[in-house]
User: Fold this.
Amino acid sequence: MSGLLNRASGYRPLQPGLSRRSSLLVRASGYRPESPRGGSLLARAAALRGAGAESRRFPVSRAFPPPGPSAPARRAMSGTLFRYIVSETAVSFFVAFLFFFFIFFVNQLLLVAQQILSKKVPVNQVILLVLYSLPSVVALAAPFASMVGILMAIGRLSSDNEILVMLSAGLPYRNIVAPAAVVGILVSLASFAANDILLPLGTLEFSRLYQRIIFSTPALELEANSVKRFKDTIIITGEVEGRVIRDVLILDKTGDGERRFILAREAALVDRGREGLSLDLNNAFVQSVGEVARRDYDYASAEFLRYYVPQEDVIQAISSVSPREMSSRDVWREIGVKQAALAEQIDGQRGLILRGAMNLEQSLRRGPEAGQAWRNRESYAAALARDMEIERVYRRDRRLSIWRLEFYKKFSIPLGAFSFVFLSVSLGLLAKKSGQTVGFLVGAIIAVFYWAMLIGGQTLGINQGFSPFLSMWFPNILALSIGIIMLMVRVKR
Assistant:
């Protein structure tokens, strides 16, 4: 009679040819559960080992109970493990966010605040200006912090062998990738909201407050060795001592459309209230030139000259909003307006090209009999070449390229947090020691390269006419592609 252990386990007695001293793994390899993917990890490993040796394959006892009614091929995702990885990533993200926030904060805000404080502006107004500028800092810092945070978290889990334990327990890689992807998506949404909703609102309040500061402290608008534009007026300044400005050059247009140049040894900046700002010029020289007839000019000199900058020009200069500070919907609408205006300009220029080509063709066809038209054939050819070059410049409008680049940038930078997920997970799994420190350093280096590619793409898009979409999205596409390839190689191993 078989023993109690054999009766309880449901296994057949030991097969002939196997010693009772054989190892547990060898003895277990002779028995396979009915479901090839069921059972514990040890039983599955034993079955695989037994498959390699024909002499150790034995029939399975039907008395062995199946592992379950429907044994899954892979372990399901653990909610506890999901929350654990998300919490680890959130803590690392917060640390990295503080780092990048400090860098962008110093770069974009503290320098401006220092210039304003040097003009004796009240501290509370400076603090408000800083608060209104925070959305732009958050929108830039969040994607980089997401990448570095995921790298630090996965690197720490890998260096502490927690990733190895998860994989040894039969958990697939999606238990590691899914929490990181969720964090990346949440950060992308938050960054996009800060860039597309909070930034325009902050810019509007910033402009309103800055207007009040300007009219209470007009010296802010004119600094030493600077160029300032007010609508149709450009003011170039030299050294500034208090309210006295040395070596002033003013470029503007008169009411008749003439270009005017004003030079002065020194000028005093005065706040005229509702009238705007004024420059009291000493030893001034004025020259006006016709817009069309450049040889027709007038000049004059004066020991004292008062030059006004109207209040509405100052307000327009301050409140002008760049595409970076607008919402994506407003930028897209403005691009449509500019495209329509540009198409009208191009059509008009093509009409000039057509007329110039017809004049040149007629003069060449008729030959010397055309008289004056024949003698003007070289000027016709030069004018045609000039009109064609102007048409090419119109088609490569840099201003429209800037607006398109800013539109795509509003999506590419926030979604960079998700594009970095696969790359961060793949690199974090390679960490052996000091996972958090290595992850932080590697993430900072990748952030520098990413920012350099963004700047390089923007330069190519503006100067070389490169595709605005590829200019702004190429870093994301590159990071996502490399990350997916590295992760697939890791999973296959």
